[in-house]
Amino acid sequence: MWHTYNCQYSMQYLCQEDRYYGNLSFYNITSTSMAFNWTPAPGPIDSYSVVVTSPAGSSQTITVGNVTETVVTGLSSSSVYTVQVFPSKCNIQLDPANGSACTAPPSPGWITVTNVGTNFVSLVWDAPSDMSSNSYSFLITYFSSYWGQSGSTNSSSFSATVMNLRAGSMYIFNVTTVNPTCGLSAPSSIAVYTNATTKILLLNVRMSSNRPCTKEMMRTLIGNRLNLLFADIYWTLGRMEQRCYGTPL
User: How many Cβ atoms from other residues are within 10 Å of residue 70's Cβ?
Assistant: First the structure.
């Protein structure tokens, strides 16, 4: 049957329940929060309701309006959360987009150096918080910017000794918690110098200057140069024999 309408006036919108096949994408996951977005539902959407369910079965519902991303905070570490996003259209709740993600494990606590040699460093660290009921281990990575040396080792306890390092060099150590289900935590870090072996470097420096030749000037200029050459190596400037010849060049 045909109906004739006056097209000078707007007609009422016909609201229908569209099938929604949404996908969730998770990012910026920490030990207590996670961010995620989802594909938009078809048609004019009033709002989205986000339902986050913990492993214990408790849920929280967040209404986020007509946006397609949000951040959920106040979560427990090393836990798999189920997320459902329900679009609302004309007071009708459509089928949800479904997904799940695991929060990161907590970071190790304070790191302490217990022993240092010319080629090794021994570390201990405090246990991560909120990990009593979870399985975990630790990954220790290290790097020396001067030598370009890097490596890693694993530990099932709260300590580790890293071997085969270079003497008199600064190393950055990062300790991260590893959970077999939820991956890596944010690292805890410490910078440590290995002990130096005694090596004497004899320098014969000839310098030109318009200023009077003084031991203080020579020590400053040589020290500045050595800082550039040995930025990440422990060194000291020992006895310096000064010889000034005539008028400085």
Answer: 19
Give the torsion through C-alpha atoms of 210, 215, 217, 222, to 10 deg. Answer: 110
How is domain 24-102 classified at the CATH fold level?
Answer: Immunoglobulin-like (2.60.40)
* Average pLDDT over all residues of the chain: 84
CA distances from 43 to 5, 17, 81 (A): 24, 9, 29
Is the pTM higher than 0.90? The answer reads no
- The residue type of 160 is A
Under the banding of pLDDT at 50, 70 and 90, the label for residue 10 is low
CA distance 107 to 4: 70
pLDDT for 65-89, tens place per residue? 889 999 999 999 999 999 999 999 8
Which pLDDT score, from 0 to 100, does residue 247 have?
Answer: 44
Find the radius of gyration of the CA atoms of the chain: 32
Residue 136, CB half-sphere, CA atoms under 13 Å: how many? Answer: 29
Q: Read off the DSSP letter of residue 92.
A: E
SS3 content of the chain, % helix, strand, coil (to 5): 5, 40, 55
| Tens of pLDDT, residues 25-37 | 999 999 999 999 9
In the chain, which segments carry CATH 2.60.40.10?
24-102, 111-193
Q: Which residues pair with 153 in a beta bridge?
A: 140
Domain boundaries 111-193, corresponding CATH code = 2.60.40.10
